[in-house]
């Protein structure tokens, strides 16, 4: 019996020795608070969290891989991804973001299908405003203004960049700017979580609202992006449950 057990343990040890290690990939993420979608700001010493992390880790578990999240400011994140190749994937990404920069580097980037579609537009302290009423506009630093050509082509428009969403909403409440560029989900989440006031902020649904798709992008691992597409298609029920958990509007 002793020899049999010793032989069995020997085989197990050999199997473990030759077992392939779990593959690890680095996902570059934005170091801002943009809840409920994600928070990579490091506030209160918390790691990257929110809907995006849970979605990506759900995918990683099904693939038997490990994802490490690397939070950086948006402009630097693109450099680490495209120029230096220090991150394997970027999330979220979109072909319409940082177009000039991407075209200048002429790098082939592979994009997934949308994992989420956000509704991003103008919010203000006043109801039913016109675009001309936005003489000053705040946006998160590094964000691309989309669908607002009528507004952004005006030379008199003052654009203020902030490091986070809370600062942007604060500037609006202090009436230092007229409008903010923000997702409807993000506006509602942050008002409820961080602002103890009865003064409403109105998302201007009648003004141009851009549908911003969140995609997973990579330069070197297109096959894994294909697997992510299959994951999105085959797990819609679980993904919708995750969206409901984070109070994200389901299309």
UniProtKB/TrEMBL annotation:
SUPFAM superfamilies: Periplasmic binding protein-like II. It comes from the Bacteria. This is Solute-binding protein family 3/N-terminal domain-containing protein. It comes from Pseudoalteromonas espejiana.
């Amino acid at each position: 019996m002793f020899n049999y057990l010793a032989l069995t343990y020997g085989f197990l040890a050999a199997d473990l020795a030759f077992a392939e290690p779990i593959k690890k990939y680095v996902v570059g993420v934005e170091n801002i608070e943009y809840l409920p979608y994600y928070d990579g700001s490091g506030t209160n010493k918390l790691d990257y969290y929110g809907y995006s992390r849970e979605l990506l880790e759900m995918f990683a578990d099904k693939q038997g891989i490990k994802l490490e999240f690397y939070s950086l400011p948006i402009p630097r994140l693109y450099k680490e991804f495209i120029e230096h190749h220090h991150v394997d994937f970027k999330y979220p990404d979109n072909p319409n973001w940082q177009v000039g920069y991407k075209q200048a580097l002429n790098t082939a980037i592979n994009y997934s299908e949308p994992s989420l579609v956000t509704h991003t537009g103008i919010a203000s302290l006043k109801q039913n405003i016109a675009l001309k009423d936005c003489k000053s506009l705040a946006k998160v630093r590094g964000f691309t203004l989309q669908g607002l050509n009528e507004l952004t082509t005006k030379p008199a428009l003052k654009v203020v960049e902030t490091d986070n969403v809370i600062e942007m909403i604060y500037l609006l409440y202090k009436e230092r700017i007229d409008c903010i560029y923000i997702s409807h989900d993000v506006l509602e989440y942050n008002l409820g979580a961080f602002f103890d006031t009865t003064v409403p902020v109105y998302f201007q649904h009648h003004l141009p609202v851009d549908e911003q798709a969140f995609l997973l992008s990579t330069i070197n691992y297109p096959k894994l992006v294909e697997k992510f597409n299959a994951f999105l298609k085959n797990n819609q029920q679980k993904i919708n449950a995750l969206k409901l958990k984070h109070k994200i509007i389901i299309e």
